[in-house]
């Protein structure tokens, strides 16, 4: 049996965020100690392995692969891999959507998501290498560079692959090969070149020559234009870790030739040579190694920033030991930067005295068999060997300030991403849950606005510099009239002429826009001490301007196709609802369109908004669904204990409490992407976003091509960029 432990890493202080373990199983199903492997993808998916015995045949083992989303670790998808030997390798591709598995008989399988769901996987391809045991594998890089320092290189040049091999004995040389993959006459050609080998430094030390006989870990650390490897040699009593670098050095010449006059253009001959960079002292026995995944080019400036800020992501590697501890070491100097003890859940920085001196237990100690850093190197996940039965506001402000410093083109590219990041941050605290609702609504608003504007077509073939959608934005921004019909006069209505089906199929999206405007205005007087959803829009001039533009477009389309207009329930038969809402929305927009100097709404506007509930029936908005992920529950200092297959709720806490103030728990459930009501107890199969919790039906009920194109935009990812997971209809 095995369990997953998730640790947060900040300033080299670690604490266990949660432990997720299997339910108790009969001892007959438990397998002997076997190698375990795990891998963490850039999409926050963790894959790990385990073996299960067959109840009828003790010799029959099922080699399982388990895949979880770190925010919903209990929702595990277990695969009987079909491997005939113990799985030795797991490796995610650069996109984080495909997984390779390999075993001791040379069988390799590629796994992919079914219908883009993180809790549904299938084998897409498989192959074998003639029964040779596979001990390591990797994806070829796709050529896209992620450079955090643009002026420096993050990957070595040449596109070659360097392979390291060892026979497991520290007294034997570690061999290195350069592999060149090319295409010749439409056939793949692989050429190999032998590189210099190395002997571990501990084997040349008389005091350690026979102390660490086995090479247990061999990892690559790439830095700029040189290759670095991390080697760990171990015995039953301890380990030692060394860091080596392959560099070009000038070949020294004999003294006889040093006084010879150099030939014009002659260069000193160069050779490749391994040099040891650093080594640790004698350590406890190492059980697992995790390397940072950030492609950071380490310079003196970087090291000074680290020293000044004490912020270490990307500069530390993790070692797990058989005594249950984890150490964070500097990736270059191998100096210890932090220590964590899994038995007590405590951590300490270098130089601090441990709060409790640990006693060596007589029996086997719980320790980690596999470790993986997240792709930001801010979190660490481990698989153990036992498997026992006001900050958000400040961060948002800093993020917004940094975003506003960027040029206009980059701001446009990052506009939706920055909103999604803000929504995720606001999910961390119940105090900012209303802001999370606002940011999710803004993502939907941006998506609907761009879709409706894309329907506009220029009325002449000679298209001007600006698209019809851009002209709508420009005219609405310049015209501050509160009369919607006067604003319409300045627009070319020919560009709005569309066929009936597209407009009618988007009616539910148009209805959402109309309901949202009514809700914002009707709740303007209610925004008090309790921050409610919608509060963030009251001084967001850009979003209010976007709503104003869409009301104008909808008004024009309503003249051509009245069936596409939003439906309001008014108390008066002669009430022009859209005229009234546009008038009030324009007044609110005028107060906040200058974001550097926003003004509070005047008393007259607030009084007019107070009258809205007596003029129109105000809809109850179904805001962002409750986030049932673990991210909202790990803010306390106590670690959470979870179980695979059983959703977690805080003891004594109503899971709906976070948003009970925003909606009734028994209200109609919504398809948040199609803006459709699903009823109180939906029966349709649905999927939910792993990041924001947005829910939508798995199968499309629409037949029109226009609405299907809208749905295709979110087939792989949610509005916020999160992945989808299938949820039972009873949980929708």
Automatic annotation (TrEMBL):
Keyword Cell membrane: no
Domain Mediator complex subunit Med16 N-terminal per the UniProt entry, residue ranges: 157-339
Compartments (UniProt record): Nucleus
Transmembrane segment boundaries: none
Record key words, sorted: Activator, Nucleus, Repeat, Transcription, Transcription regulation, WD repeat
GO annotation terms (biological process): positive regulation of DNA-templated transcription
Mediator complex subunit 16 C-terminal domain sequence ranges: 663-725
Pfam families, A to Z: Med16_bridge, Med16_C, Med16_N
Recorded GO CC terms: mediator complex
WD repeat residue intervals: 80-111
Species for this entry: Cyprinus carpio (Common carp)
Subunit structure: Component of the Mediator complex.
Annotated ranges, domain Mediator of RNA polymerase II transcription subunit 16 central helical bridge: 388-557
Main location group: nucleus
UniProt protein name: Mediator of RNA polymerase II transcription subunit 16
Family classification: Belongs to the Mediator complex subunit 16 family.
Matches recorded under SMART domains: WD40
Stretches assigned to coiled coil: none
Classification via PROSITE patterns: WD_REPEATS_2, WD_REPEATS_REGION
Protein function: Component of the Mediator complex, a coactivator involved in the regulated transcription of nearly all RNA polymerase II-dependent genes. Mediator functions as a bridge to convey information from gene-specific regulatory proteins to the basal RNA polymerase II transcription machinery. Mediator is recruited to promoters by direct interactions with regulatory proteins and serves as a scaffold for the assembly of a functional preinitiation complex with RNA polymerase II and the general transcription factors.
